[in-house]
Each structure stands twice: as C-alpha cells, then as structure tokens.
Amino acid sequence: MDVSPVVMTDPIDALRDRRADFPILGETVHGRPLVFLDSAASAQKPVQVIDAMGDTMRTQYANIHRGLHWMSERTTDAYEAVRDQVARLIGAPAREEVIFTRNSTEAINLVAHSFGSLMRPGQAVVISEMEHHANLVPWQMLRDRAGIELRVAPITDSGDIELEALERLVADGKVALVAVTHMSNVLGTVTPARRIADIAHAAGARVLFDGSQFVVHRRVDVQAIDADFYTFTGHKLYGPTGIGVLWGRRELLEAMPPFLGGGDMISSVTFERSTWAHVPHKFEAGTPAIIETIGLGAAISYIEAIGYDAIAAHETALVEYALPRLAEVPGLRVVGAPAERGGVISFTMDDVHPHDIATLLDRNGIAVRAGHHCAEPLMRRLGLSATARASFALYTTREEVDALAATLTQIRGFFV
Amino acid sequence: MDQDGLYQRQVIERARTPVHAGPLDGATGRGEGTNPMCGDRVRVGVWLDADGRIETVRHQTRGCAICLASADMMAGLAAGQDRSGAVTMGRDFAALLQTGQDGDAPPELMVFAPLHRHRSRIRCATLAWSALEAALAEVPVGTPVGETRDGMRRE
Q1: Backbone angles phi, psi at B126, to 5 degrees
Q2: Which fold has domain B9-137?
Q3: Among candidates A30, A356, A386 on the partner chain, residue whose Cβ is nearest the Cβ of B65
C-alpha cells in the first residue's frame, strides 16, 4: 500500500498559474471577465508565442533557404529548428518527414491531391461519420475528380467509430486510404488510432489521422499508432494561425508528386522541364509562413515545458468535473458518451436553440461555439441541426465551468 | 441576463407558439432560406388572392428564437401586401437591423432592433424574408388566380 506523505496537487489547480501567460484572459467582454470556452475552434496565445513572433520581426527576419547573408541564415536556422521540434513532438522518425502547410485543411488537401493522384479509379477512401468538413470535402473532390469511391464508417450512438463496420468496409482490398479524426471536434471522442491503423494495414490500406484536436490534449506518437500520415494545425495548439503540419512516411512522400509548384520546391528549372527538390521542400512551394512557423515552435516549447502529462490530467479532471455539473442544468443533454473523451462537450437544451444559448452566454462574457461545427453529416447522423459546444484548454478553470453551468440554468429559466 | 433586450418577451412567446407555422401544400409559390453557417432553415409558402395580393403566408422553420419569431411576424405582416410591398417591407426590415432605427419598417419589427449590435445574428432575422422573396419570385407575374406551383387548381 502506498503511504506516501506527498499531498497530490489538484490537477485542475496545478495549471492555474499558467493563466498569467495569456494576456487576453485579463480582458472583459460586455463588462464581464472573459470566460473563453471556445478553444477547440482556436486557442488563445501565451506571451511566449506572441513575443517569439514579435522578436523575430524586430531582430531576426529575412527570407529563408536562399539568402547568402547573415540574417537569412539565422532565420533559416530558426525556421528549420521548428521542423526538429515538430518531429520530436509527434515522435516522427525523421525531420524530413515534417511538411509545413497553412493548416490541417491544407495538409489533408495535399494528401488528397498528391497521394490521391497515385490512386486508380475503383480504389476507395474510407472516412468516418464524425469527420470535420476538412477531412471530408477533399475526399469528395478526389472522388469526383478521379473516380475514387468514398466510403463512410458509421459511429455508434455514443459517438465511437464502429470498428467491425470499418473492418467490413476495407475487407475487399480496394481501400487505398483510411482517413479519420484522432479526436472529434464535436463529440470529443478520442479514436483508437492504433486499432484503426491495424485494421487499415491488414487490408493493405494506408491511414491518415486528423490530429487537430488530439495534439492539443495528448501526446502524439506517430510510430506507436503506426500512422502513415498525420495532420494538425498550429492555432489550436496555442500557436498562430497560418501554420499547420503534415507528417508522412518518407517512402510515401518521396513517391508522391508535388502539390503546389513554384520557388523553393524545385531542384532545377528549364523551360522544357523542372525537377523537384527532396522532401520536405518538394511540398513547400513559395516563401512559407516563416514568422508563424517560429511562433509554432514557441508554442511547442511552451507545451513541452508544461508537459502533456499535466495537460492531460488537467483536462481529464475538468471533463469529469464538468459532465455532472452540466447534467444538473434543467433540460440540458450532453451529446455523445464516447469511451474516451477529450476536453470538448457538445450539448443541447430543451426549448432553447444553441444560437440563443451562445448569444446569451456571450452577454455574460462566456464564449462558446454554436452551430454544426463544420460537421454537417455528423449533425444529421445525430438527428440535430446544431449544438452548443464548450471546449477546454490548459487555462480553463473549475470556476469557469461553474459559471457556464450557472448561466445555462439562468438561460433555461429565461426561456421556459 | 439579456441586457440588450434582444430576447424581449414578445420574441420568446412568438418563437414558442408561432401562429403562422404550418404545411405549405398547395401554396402558389414556395421558397427557402438557409444559413449555411448554422444550419437554420425557413421554408415559406405564399398564397395569392384574386388581385394578385398576398392572401396567406405560412412557414416551416428550423432555427433559433430570433429566426422563428421573425418568420412568424413576417408571415403576419406580408399578408395583405402586394409583391413589391412585401419585398420593400423586407428591405426596410434589413435596414432596421443595420441601423437599429425603424425608418420605414413596420413599428412592430422594432423588437428586433437590438440585433444591430449583434451582427452575427442579423441573418437569423432576415432568413424568413429571403425565403419570402424566393417564394414570390417563383410565382410568374400574371399567374392565374388559384393556380398552384404544380399547375393544380386550388380547392
């Protein structure tokens, strides 16, 4: 029996001091302190990220990769160092497998265009019923462009992917790629990535995970989950907008044709023909988002200094606290009950539309999302037109959850 | 709770118990307004009388309280108008939502004036008027009285 005298710190309170890193959390909205529960849409930025970007522009900025002067070399070093950081963050075996994109949407479009161009008519892509439009529309476009079949793996009523159904969908060996979320932006479902990868690989398919939500809350290890492609976006990870990541296995990236053509992605160019640079540069045409990439690097440093263990413990404790608090609100229904849930809670309320909920919460300084959350097919599957969604970040407190629950109770009383 | 007066009692009551919601079967013209940002949808049916004036408007609305109340008030206000009068009324209402001033819009629509400080919600209120315009546009000028969009005679 463990008789350690150490008093365990409450995992929610453990990160309380970090709030001071986020200047915006000191703002008021409609005269009330800001309660920001919309971090799944885009997270707020710590001063470390803000300063890193400002300092770059103030002291160390030039175009990268082709300059022969000191400033360009230093900026190139700073930019390329972030590639190392990303590789370490997600457990990538090689830094060259990390490609910078504008966001996760662009990363998925890159795969749909480039990997998609290697698919043959009659082959199929499998997605799930709970995909963000970012991991749905590019595959529809590929289907219509290239005669690829698009198959949809169903989810259970609780919001988990039906793995037996997924096995059946890939069983005929025609599936070239399974592309699914690693964590649902609507239901908070954390998907069993390794099992999904095993199912895909057993049928000869590759697997892509949209990790935009997951990477914010849990450590990613692309080798442990046996992924072939992994995507995420910087702005949900406390970094700036305009910078995202595609990770892919080197042999796949090398076999894939370029996505966009232009400067930086070539080896040589004549009017007759061009040859391509090696990965990752083959996929990074034009001047990239240099400042934003350096900002992402600062965000990764920030996350790693806190540690995913503390972040995940904070979030798990917060979700465990929030679910029963929200259940006390009259007429409130939490959508989905996945086996494993990240810090995202969607809900509806009898007699009050999600938009009216969001507007009245906003009048009380509480920011949530309402609508279909860029997942219209999922809404139809759930028989809903919209939900309200509260999402948590490392700066979210128990008191903010209390404020949400109390204000929701008032809103309900206002309408009924 | 609602410092702006966005959700006045009249809006909440009208949303809860709309008086002009109902089936659109047999309408002279039908139209739909949707908001792709949120999934709200208003379907509108119009029935014209012998003079080509709007006799009845009914709606089927899936949306928030603002959207529902606005649709129901639109249906009540449009009845008795001719086409151009109804379209003008919708445009006057849009101006009201932009400025917060009633201008030429019917005074009862001033309950929605606080929306001018909630730009992201203005579309909730205008959706039904867009659907009405679409329904009217579907009725060819000079449509024989009592003929439905399906070319069927009304009973």
Answers
A1: -90, -10
A2: Sufe protein. Chain: A (3.90.1010)
A3: A356
3-state secondary structure of A194: helix
Delimit the domains of chain A by residue range.
Answer: 13-36+307-415, 50-305
Q: What digits encode the pLDDT tens for the residues A212-242?
A: 999 999 999 999 999 999 999 999 999 999 9
Tell me the sheet residues that pair with A276: A266
Of A223, A218, A231, give the one whose Cα is nearest residue A181: A231
> By the 8 A CB rule, do B124 and B67 touch?
yes
- Residues forming beta bridges with residue A334, ordered by sequence position: A347
Helix axes B65-78, A354-363, angle to 10 degrees: 110
Condensed to tens digits (0 to 9), the pLDDT of residues B122-142 reads 999 999 999 999 999 988 766
A380 part of contact set with chain B, CB < 8 Å: no
| pTM of the entire predicted model | 0.91
φ and ψ at residue B30, rounded to 5 degrees: -130, 145
Is residue A374 among the annotated active site residues? yes
List the single residue in B1, B6, B63 with the smallest CB-CB distance to A353. Answer: B63
- Ranges of residues in chain A whose predicted pLDDT is under 70: 1-8
Class of the A13-36+307-415 domain?
Answer: alpha beta
Q: Which of A227, A291, A374, A394 is catalytic?
A: A374
Whether the CB of B39 is below 8 Å from some CB of chain A: the reply is yes
Q: Where are the alpha helices (DSSP H) in A124-275?
A: 137-146, 163-170, 193-202, 214-217, 250-255
Task: Report yes or no: A32 at the B interface, CB cutoff 8 Å.
Answer: no
Radius of gyration of chain B from its Cα atoms, rounded to whole angstroms: 15
Find residue A175's DSSP bridge partners: A124
User: Predicted ipTM?
Assistant: 0.83
**Rounded Cα gap, residues B151 and B27, in angstroms:** 11
- How confident is the model at residue B139, as a pLDDT? 83
Distance of CA A63 to the CA centre of its chain: 28
Distance CA A363, CA A30 (A): 6
A356 vs B: CB within 8 A: yes
Beta bridge partner(s), residue A367: A36
Task: Round to whole Å and give the CA distance between B65 and A92.
Answer: 49
Residues in chain A closer than 8 A to B118 (CB atoms): 359
Q: Kindly indicate whether the domain formed by A50-305 is annotated with CATH number 3.90.550.10.
A: no
Q: Give me the pLDDT at residue B153, please.
A: 42
The DSSP secondary structure of B89-152, one letter per residue, reads HHHHHHHHHHHS--TTS-GGGGGGGGGGG-GGGHHHHHHHHHHHHHHHHTS-TTPPTTB-TTSP
* Residue segments in chain B with a per-residue pLDDT below the cut of 70: 141-155
